[in-house]
Write a structure and sequence with these properties.
The protein is mostly helical. 69% of the residues lie in helices and 0% in strands. The protein is built from 2 helices and no strands.
Length: 42
Amino acid sequence: MNTPYAKRVAEKFREAQNYLKTNGFSRSTQHLLEDIENSVEK
């Protein structure tokens, strides 16, 4: 899809991925909840 909406969603997805990577979150979705819990405890 090359609609403006699809492009905007893809950009937001890339931003979210970059945010998670730069803040040390695991790439595995199995550990995402653990990462969230650990970040709250700090």
